[in-house]
Amino acid sequence: MKVVTINQIEKEPFTLPLFTSPDVTRQVLLPESKEYEVNMVNFGKGVRNKFHSHDYEQVLIVTAGKGIIATKEEEKVISAGDVVFIPANEVHWHGAAADFEFSHIYMNSSQTRLTQHED
Fold it and tell me: How many other C-beta atoms lie within 10 A of the C-beta of residue 99?
C-alpha cells in the first residue's frame, strides 16, 4: 500500500503539442502503477488541450478552479468536486475557463493511446 500527498509531489512542465499553451504542469501521482496512469494536470488561465480521443475510458476528478469539458456537440462548465467520465473513443477537450486556472486528476488505462484530432 502507498499513500501520496498531492501537495508534496513536484510539478513538472507538461509541454505537448496537445496543449494550446505551454502553461501546463503535471504531477505524477502513482508512477509505480502498471495498470493506470494517475496524474494531476494544472492548466494556466484559459489553457486547454486540443480535441483528442483515447481508445480506453478516461476519468477526470476536478480539484481546483473552473474549467470546461467539451465534445463536438456540447460544452459543460466544471469545477472542484466534479467527476467526469469520458467513454472510449469520444472526441473531446478539457481545460481552464478564460479567467481561471484549473486542475484535475486524470485516470487512464496505462494501455491507452491518445489520438489528437485538432492541430
Answer: 8
Cβ-contact 77, 66 below 8 angstroms: yes
Domain annotation for the chain: domains and CATH numbers:
11-110 (2.60.120.10)
- Residue 94: the pLDDT is 98
Residue 7's SS3 state is helix
Cβ within 8 Å of residue 89, ≥6 positions away:
53, 54, 55
* Residue-level pLDDT at 33: 96
For residue 62, give Cα distances in angstroms to 32, 66, 113. Answer: 23, 9, 22
- The model's confidence at residue 91, banded by pLDDT at 50, 70 and 90, is very high
What length is written for the chain? Answer: 119
30: cell is 502513482
Q: What is the mean pLDDT of the chain?
A: 97
